[in-house]
Amino acid sequence: MTGRRSPSPDAGPARRTPQRRAIRRAFETAGRPLAPEECLARARREVPRLGLATVYRNIRRLVAEGSLRTVELPGAPARYELPRAGHHHHFHCRACDGVFEVDDCPGGFGALAPGGFRLEGHEVILYGLCAGCAP
Amino acid sequence: MTGRRSPSPDAGPARRTPQRRAIRRAFETAGRPLAPEECLARARREVPRLGLATVYRNIRRLVAEGSLRTVELPGAPARYELPRAGHHHHFHCRACDGVFEVDDCPGGFGALAPGGFRLEGHEVILYGLCAGCAP
DNA sequence: TTGGATGCAAACGCTTTGCATAATT
DNA sequence: AATTATGCAAAGCGTTTGCATCCAA
Questions:
Q1: From CA B121, how far away is CA A17, in angstroms rounded?
Q2: Residues B80, B71: contact at Cβ < 8 Å?
Q3: What is the DSSP letter of A17?
């Protein structure tokens, strides 16, 4: 046996708490990837005393469980989204800072990698103005 | 007139210091984008007492001058590279964490943006193993 | 009752800034 | 001599962790 009990991490089966419900609901109702702070703001509508640390802990757990997926962005805090069907990318609005799903992928990356490099994956991020911010 | 003298920022014409020389040389000899810490390590070979803050300040100034370009990456500290000719993207090695230039671009992003969105730019990051790390 | 979950605050890693000192022009 | 540049340490920002308390099972 390990001999050393888990330090404090949320290891066992998840318990049903109002915080968890509110956090999960924030993602379900957003319809787009959320940053932790955005998730906090939304979830606080249900649980006003909710703390940011709780949001981070739950996001981490949901990601580990596969109920949430991490969306890493260049030069911006990560967003988190509910897992969707196919391979897709994201659009980052320069005005409202919102992130939106983009269903498709141009493909054709195989030829880009320099000789001797092994290509294992890719990321595409589109920038501009979302429908709500475009004039 | 402004009436208030510059707070402390490096505003005037750049002076020639050994630190600056070493920092610029770090990028010139690297042949690939560098993170601030990588730049520090390289520049310290010439100026051992060089401080990290000095590296950050000089990088910021070089970027403002256009002598250096920022390479932002998802979930990783930004790199900085000497400005090259055409539009290009980057390859991020999962093993050594190094970043390398990729000369081409697949294009074809125009069709991806959702309806009503205004596409203004894009970023592509390739992942895998660089020539030095590939088996 | 009991171990996981929460909230608050402190700690962290990366980056920026304040300030006294060192160095360039 | 006048100022900018440097180095160090402290502050900021987003994220994680420690800990006493709270609560679901």
A1: 42
A2: yes
A3: -
Query: In whole angstroms, what is the distance from residue A60 CA to residue A54 CA?
Result: 10
Protein chain B, residues 58-117, with a C-beta closer than 7 Å to any atom of nucleic acid strand D: 58
How large is the angle between the packed helices A18-30 and A36-43, nearest 10 degrees? 110
Instruction: Enumerate domains of chain B plus CATH numbers.
Output: 18-79 (1.10.10.10), 85-128 (3.30.1490)
- Residue A32 is predicted with a pLDDT of 97
Compute the nearest-CA separation of A75 from chain B (Å): 6
Contact yes or no for B81/B34 (Cβ under 8 A)? yes
Could you tell me the two tokens for A7?
A: 């330090």
Distance A54 CA to D21 C1' (A): 15
Tell me the CA end-to-end span of chain A in Å, nearest whole number.
63
Residue-wise pLDDT tens digits, B21-70: 999 999 999 999 999 999 999 999 999 999 999 999 999 999 999 999 99
How far: B43 CA to D6 C1' (Å)? 14
SS (HEC) of chain B: CCCCCCCCCCCCCCCCCHHHHHHHHHHHHHCCCECHHHHHHHHCCCCCCCCHHHHHHHHHHHHHHCCCEEEEEECEEEEEECCCCCCCEEEEECCCCCEEEECCCCCCCCCCCCCCCEEEEEEEEEEEECCCCCC
